[in-house]
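Handout, section B. The chain below has 174 residues.
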Amino acid sequence: GNFESTELGRIASHFYLTHETIQSYNKLLRPGLGDIELFRVFAASSEFKHISVRQEEKFELAQLLERVPIPIKEAADEPSAKVNCLLQAYISGLKLDGFSLVSDMVFITQSAGRLMRALFEIVLHKGWAELADNALVLAKMIERRMWESMSPLRQFKKLPDEVITKLEKKSLPF
């Protein structure tokens, strides 16, 4: 018989995904997912299975959960909520106090772009255009560390924050 690779296998190989991650993506992905659900799918990646919520981080994590822009449905003491929250804090540029949270954020963000691009490839292969667009936008937000609603002028540190805030309120297309 012939031995042929599947498209999911190629994506897993290209983006260094574990079979558990592919399995969870297959189970959780469906057409029409919004940003909230896409973040939840990302947080379910098996690459983060060793992340736990430590006792000393619970207070700061609870505060972060209130500050992130996309609501998180899980409780603050769940590891998937921590992964989701730290990714959003990274995109938002929020400062963290606890050393353990900072080290976990570094671990999460080192894999975030790769995992989100893999999610994009998977949904693109499945032919789900709207979800592919959402995944690509999210991958670009992770890469640029800026929310889509933020002005690209934020990259220039010499521009005053008041000017950028006023431009963002005008909702000018960039």
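Note. The two ends are 53 Å apart (CA to CA). Compare this with the example in section A.
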